[in-house]
Amino acid sequence: MLIYPEIDPVALSLGPLKVHWYGLTYLTGIAVGWWLAARRSKLPWTPVSRDQVDDLIFYCALGIVLGGRVGYTLFYGGDRLLENPAWALRVWEGGMSFHGGFLGVLLAMYLFGRRHQIPFWRLMDFIAPFVPVGLGLGRIGNFIGQELWGRPSDVPWAMVFPADPLQLARHPSQLYQFALEGLLMFIILYWYSAKPRPTCAVSGLFSLSYGCVRFVSEFFREPDQHIGFQAFGWMTRGQMLSLPMILLGVYLIGIAYGRASAAQQQPGKKTAR
Question: What is the E.C. number (predicted)?
Fold first, then answer.
């Protein structure tokens, strides 16, 4: 069993103002995403120019924060939201949902694309490789904040989290998700998108890969106490929300390469990429 490295969740205190590591991981993820997008915007086939990157990241940040919070209150709030609707505004108490943030970014990219006359799916293909950076850093924030810990386990690297009232040795599932959703997905998507791909292919790979790694990692993560297990007595809310992403990913990859193949069979016609 490993000893949890007790880290103060507050990174910096300035009088009554407290800056938490969780918030800093979000800011760092957005900053790194901005840097990567600025670099990628210089490639000849990308739909976003360098001048548009700053505006793009602003839209993404709004979609992540607003969508993540709204999604959490709807997907995981349960009776708490019904009893006290004002709870949804208490962002300082924590609570963000990736699936809600994903929907928020979809809406933000739709609005950004309309404003700048950029096709929606080409825009999604552009930003998809950068998303795992924020996901991975967010999981580090979860680990430092001692939230979303894993299920009880006797593996040699299990940890006892000081905030756990039961004081059980658990999977450090936040670190599993950092490795899968962050490192692994970033390597795959950044490599795959390094050259032109059919429109929707990069977005499809992101949706498919996230749905798969999230579904697997949920087997090691303790379900939310007020929700517990749901479908079939073993499936969590996170797994249920990931299934549509897997199906969407398969669909997008299928139509991307289907259209590309059809275009290649028509002389003189280029793919949408």
Answer: 2.5.1.145
pTM across the whole model: 0.85
Query: What tokens does 185 get?
Result: 């997905």
pLDDT digits (tens, 9 = 90+) for 82-124: 666 665 555 545 566 777 888 898 999 999 999 999 999 999 9
139 is in an annotated binding site: yes
Closest to 148 (Cα-Cα) out of 157, 159, 139, 136: 139
CB contact at 8 A, 41 and 32: no
In sequence order, the 6+-apart residues with CB closer than 8 A to the CB of 168 are 152, 160
